[in-house]
What we know:
It is a single chain. This protein is mainly α. The protein has 9 helices and 3 strands, in the order H-H-H-H-H-H-H-E-E-H-E-H. It has helices at residues 20-33, 38-63, 69-82, 92-96, 100-104, 108-114, 121-129, 149-152, 169-201; strands at 133-135, 138-139, 156-157. The chain starts with 19 loop residues before the first helix and ends with a helix.
Amino acid sequence: MGDPKFKKKTYSTPRHPWDKTRIDFENELVFKYGLKNKRELWKAQSILDSFRTQARLLQARMRINDPGAQVSFQKLVGRLNRYKILGSNATLDDILSLSIDSILERRLQTLVHKKNLARTPSQSRQLITHGHIVMGGRRTSIPGILVEASSEDTIGYFPRSPLADEDHPVRKSFEHKEEEDQKISSAESETETNDETEGGEK
């Protein structure tokens, strides 16, 4: 079991630490999802590797018609479906084709930003760590927690947080950002329509 004071490492570092291609890719993900450091990225990668390892082992067990393989497969798919990573009809190939984005998209920090409770992923992290966000009626301060599908709709502002007031300046800035994004998207769609019309006339 080990001494409870010494926590077990939940991630593994890259085998080749100075691979430029990998470093650039990791930097993009850290910026895209507003991660604190690459350790959070490596933790998500370890979760993904665990799912893939289980899928590869199940493939081998199914080839020899192991009676318990199907039960283990259903449990694995059920877990992935519970976290809305894959559907209930997923196959082993679907599990093996998962990417790191599939895990990072289910983090609380990412979902708070997607639900327009924060302007940026970095601000989303700040709101969570400062106790402004609740999930399932309970305040949570862990940005990297994976959110189950049943809990996704319960994410919101803490009732006693200043941000719970719709007239809060930060909330107003969100509304302005949404309006600007809508104007930009509508302008882009109009431009594409005009280009298609001109191309058809030619």
